[in-house]
Design brief:
The protein is mainly α. Helix content is 72%, strand content 0%. It starts with a helix and ends in a 5-residue tail after the last helix.
Length: 412
């Protein structure tokens, strides 16, 4: 089909180029120089002057002046006839044919170099079948981890932190069924760049939780499995992701990974509606928004929506819900019990929403600060560890959370 289309285009171009040449060849006088016609006219004018002089229509002086003027035109026409290139009948047609041959040869050479001559036609049905085959033949988690490229070297952590993590490993080894210890270990290993160890700790935590594992914990495990597999969502990772979505179908991080899974398996038509909804729902500074915005136009084109226009990025951040410093200060006029109850309720609502729906880095920073105000430093450290895992792919998004943890004295 491709070559038939190319041949049809070649014929159309050739006809367009040769048509003027054929019209010229159809005219018998087309190859006669224009100066020869001028010469014939000037000679007729010279004979007309002589006839007018014999009939007495013009005087001798006028006749002489006309002879000089016409003679000058005859000399100019003769000079143009002498210098004009010889035009041979059929020469223009040969030149046009040579030009067509050069253009066609150049196009074929360019295609042979840059194109794919042996590539068969790929109708949509065949493409879907190929995508399904690639999906079904993905490597498993262990194979993908073994074949994953080496991760870039992480900055060396301070000796004190490394010692704390080592003690944490020993504590978890002694008490492998401690969910809090496993959570801290997964976050700590992630911070150190030990993705395999972080995945193993999170996997043990999910296994320990069983059916009680939260959507957030399942999503974190799926993300770690993908990271350990070099960015590939394996069948095992997809299974964990499906469990997370079953727990909370609206969790944005899980939906982002689901769209990525469809992309990895050649189904942009399935990925586009998922990422489109995430982009339009926001929030605009969520860590998954930037990669979606950078690729949504190409994804829309591949999915058959070339006219899609993404929402404009907000120029200003909206007000953040949840407890802030002003709310905490206003509670000072209440009784200690009322103040504690109000602040605790606000913090609990924010923490629940962040766990179920996700949120902006500023909201995570606010949660950490509020927990410290409530005297829950240990829980604030857990949130800080969870935030590191959630925003590990974006140092910029993690910056305000790190600042809140530093201001709260959780880290140096």
């Amino acid at each position: 089909m491709f070559w038939i289309i190319c041949l049809a285009l070649l014929v159309i171009v050739a006809v367009a180029i040769l048509a003027p040449v054929w019209r010229q060849r159809g005219n018998a006088d087309a190859t006669v120089p224009a100066a020869s016609f001028d010469m014939q006219v000037y000679r007729d004018q010279m004979r007309e002057v002589e006839r007018d002089l014999e009939r007495g229509v013009i005087q001798q002086d006028d006749a002489e002046r006309l002879r000089v003027e016409i003679g000058r035109k005859i000399l100019d026409a003769d000079r143009r006839m002498t210098t004009a290139p010889a035009i041979r009948r059929g020469g223009a047609a040969i030149a046009a044919m040579l030009a067509i041959a050069v253009f066609f040869g150049g196009a074929v050479a360019l295609y042979m170099r840059e194109g794919a001559p042996g590539m068969p036609d790929l109708p949509i049905g065949k493409r879907i079948a190929m995508a399904q085959s690639a999906y079904e033949n993905r490597p498993d988690q262990s194979t993908a981890e073994a074949e994953a490229p080496a991760r870039p070297q992480q900055p060396q952590a301070d000796a004190e932190y490394l010692a704390l993590v080592e003690r944490l490993r020993e504590a978890v080894a002694k008490n492998p069924e401690d969910p809090q210890g496993l959570t801290l270990l997964a976050n700590s290993e992630m911070r150190l760049g030990n993705i395999i160890a972080a995945r193993e700790a999170q996997q043990r935590l999910v296994a320990l939780r069983g059916n009680e594992a939260s959507a957030q914990e399942l999503m974190q495990l799926a993300a770690l499995m993908m990271e350990a597999a070099g960015g590939l969502i394996t069948p095992e990772g997809e299974e964990v992701l499906a469990r997370a979505l079953q727990k909370n179908p609206r969790q944005p991080q899980s939906r982002y990974l689901l769209g990525l899974l469809q992309l990895q398996n050649g189904r942009p038509d399935r990925a586009f509606p998922i990422w489109r909804e995430l982009l339009e729902q926001g929030p605009v500074d969520a860590p998954w928004i930037a990669p979606i915005r950078n690729s949504i136009l190409d994804l829309a084109w591949l999915a058959g929506h070339p006219d899609y226009v993404p929402p404009r990025a907000a120029s200003a951040m909206p007000a953040l819900p949840g407890p802030d410093q002003d709310s905490v200060a206003a509670a000072q006029d209440m009784t200690p019990a009322e103040r504690q109850e109000m602040i605790q309720g606000m913090v609990s609502q924010l923490e629940t929403r962040l766990a179920e729906e996700g949120g902006t880095p500023e909201e995570w920073a606010r949660l950490i600060s509020s927990l410290v105000i409530l005297g829950q430093q240990d829980h604030a450290r857990d949130i800080w560890g969870e935030a590191q895992l959630r925003f590990a792919a974006s140092a910029e998004a993690l910056a305000p959370i790190r600042a809140a943890a530093q201001n709260a004295g959780l880290i140096e």
